[in-house]
């Protein structure tokens, strides 16, 4: 039995509230159980120097956690003068994941920055950030299309992410914090709406795993990301 009482292949309840902030071109609040992330997308008529003049667009991301997103207060990274290694790794992951679903030629020479701020954490914050980040990106691109700033849709496929792992010897979908903190194997799966893999992060936290177990976790991830993509599309309809 999972601590939450969920079935092995059962996701946490997912809600996505769009238009959560007033000023951003795209925004949503995504809730995956008790993990809540605010995602905003900002359009800028500039690109990084390394692609300037190429006609290509760019999608990047920033990630952070509020001091009381967890059960004890974390010091703000700004107070220490630099981002932690975990933060840098996660925001690079979010940017890579979202760019995989973008036709950068169709986007044109502009940048969209997706900010993911964790309001409350209960496991799977990077996955919720990617899933919600795509919704914010979708809404921002819709504004470009409506204004006629671009003529074809640069978002070629939705992008969503979910965690899977081996908990108490059983393969489980969408780990919350009690499971994530004790999982023998922990993985994050990032996929497109058409079922293609973008990135897989898997590690043996307490025990090694077999090829068959990895395949089982992948099957769970396909199920989970399918449900997430359906929630994304419903939110953006």
Structure description:
The protein is α+β, with helices and mostly antiparallel strands and 237 residues long. It is 32% helix and 29% strand. The chain has 6 helices and 9 strands, in the order E-E-E-E-H-H-H-E-H-E-E-H-E-E-H. Strands 1-2-3-5-4 form a 5-stranded mixed β-sheet. It has a 4-stranded antiparallel β-sheet with strand order 7-6-8-9, with helices on both faces. Strand 6 and strand 7 (170-173) form a beta hairpin. Helix 2 (85-99) packs across helix 4 (125-147) and helix 4 packs parallel to helix 6. The radius of gyration is 18 Å and the shape is globular. The model has no long low-confidence stretch (mean pLDDT 96).
Distance between the termini: 36 Å
Query: Fraction of residues in helices?
Result: 25-40%
Structural class: alpha+beta
Order of helices and strands: EEEEHHHEHEEHEEH
- Overall geometry comes to globular
Unreliable residue stretches = none
Distinct helical segment count? 6
| Widest sheet: strand ordering | 1-2-3-5-4
Arithmetic mean of pLDDT: 96
Number of strands: 9
Give the percentage of residues in beta strands. Answer: 25-35%
**Major sheet attributes:** 5 strands, mixed
> What radius of gyration results from the CA coordinates?
18 Å
């Amino acid at each position: 039995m999972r601590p939450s009482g969920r079935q092995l292949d059962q996701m946490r309840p997912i809600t996505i509230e769009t238009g959560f902030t007033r000023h951003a071109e795209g925004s949503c609040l995504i809730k995956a159980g008790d993990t809540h992330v605010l995602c905003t997308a900002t359009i800028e008529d500039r690109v990084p120097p390394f692609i300037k003049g190429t006609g290509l667009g760019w999608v990047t991301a920033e990630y952070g956690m509020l001091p009381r997103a967890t059960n004890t207060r974390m010091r703000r990274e700004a107070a220490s003068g630099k981002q932690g290694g975990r933060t840098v790794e996660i925001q690079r992951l979010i940017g890579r994941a979202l760019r995989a679903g973008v036709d950068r030629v169709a986007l044109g020479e502009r940048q969209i920055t997706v900010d993911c701020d964790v309001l409350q954490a209960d496991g799977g914050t990077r996955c919720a950030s990617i899933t919600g980040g795509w919704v914010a990106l979708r809404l921002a691109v819709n504004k470009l299309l409506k204004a006629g700033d671009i003529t074809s849709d640069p978002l070629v496929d939705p992008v969503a992410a979910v965690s899977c792992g081996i908990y108490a010897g059983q393969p489980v979908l969408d780990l919350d914090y009690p499971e994530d903190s004790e999982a023998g194997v922990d993985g994050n799966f990032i996929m497109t709406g058409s079922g293609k893999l973008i990135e897989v992060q898997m590690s043996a936290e307490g025990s090694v795993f077999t090829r068959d177990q990895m395949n089982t976790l992948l099957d769970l991830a396909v199920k989970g990301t399918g449900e997430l993509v359906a929630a994304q599309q419903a939110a953006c309809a």
